[in-house]
Design brief:
CATH superfamily of chain A: Winged helix-like DNA-binding domain superfamily/Winged helix DNA-binding domain
Number of strands of chain A: 3
Oligomer: homodimer
Number of domains of chain A: 1
Largest sheet of chain A: 3 strands, antiparallel
Number of helices of chain A: 4
Helix content of chain A: 55-70%
Shape of chain A: globular
Strand content of chain A: 5-15%
Largest interface: A-B, 32 and 32 residues
Radius of gyration of chain A: 15 Å
Order of helices and strands of chain A: HEHHEEH
Distance between the termini of chain A: 26 Å
Low-confidence stretches of chain A: none
Chain lengths: 108, 108
DNA sequence: TTTAGTATATAATCTATTTATATACATAAT
DNA sequence: ATTATGTATATAAATAGATTATATACTAAA
């Protein structure tokens, strides 16, 4: 993480939900995807993503199943639920507000 | 705080530095200022701002002196240092990157 | 057979923020 | 008078999301 790790805090779940909106995926793939999409700046740690998955499953935002893991290590896939889609919409809307307000507070 | 308190985490010091860039100020005034400038959405708690001041003073970003507190409770004023100004510039630059990247990661 | 890459998982630790609590002065309302 | 409200600072304890450290396991290339 080239940014302070506090920077992603509060956004990790939103970013995961946005990726799962497109298609089911698994931890390792999501981590690589975030690394690419963030121009190599956000490298989420294993422990961070797996504990986030655990929280989100308990909260009913995602559900999980084992993939076959053909030709490599086994994969645990995650799928977004209807509740997850609703929460994503709320978090996106919240982000649009935060973005405007933080820009006003931080820029000269 | 109408936003999750995790949202401001990592930005509190930047916001304080930006306000001190204009003029010396004190905790209560800065809190009210942030509340106004954030459209009533960010209500930083006393403990948060005073512990942030403590950290920033230790890090040499700000220095402090007592105001006279005429006609009310005593005020502890804070002034930004040269190091504080340098750190603000770095944090602003970092924010511009974060803003772009988080928009790419969160928006549909 | 050793290294690197893929893949998941948990315990212990870190740290910025919150909650709770305390102090103290000024002013307006009851 | 005294109660409530606003101004103003401060610290201890709790919270919670992130990191570090560690463990397991399979595949493929050197």
């Amino acid at each position: 993480m080239t940014f302070s790790s506090d920077i992603l805090r509060g956004h990790t779940e939103t970013v995961i939900l946005k990726i799962l909106l497109e298609k089911d995926s698994y931890g390792y793939e999501i981590t690589k995807r975030i690394l690419e999409d963030s121009e190599g700046r956000i490298d989420i740690k294993d422990a961070t993503i797996y504990t986030a998955f655990r929280r989100m499953e308990i909260d009913g935002l995602i559900c999980t199943y084992w993939g076959d893991g053909a030709g490599g290590a086994r994969r645990r896939y995650y799928s977004i639920t209807d509740k997850g889609r609703r929460v994503y919409t709320e978090k996106l809307s919240e982000w649009l507000d935060i973005d405007r307000i933080l820009n006003a507070l931080i820029r000269k």
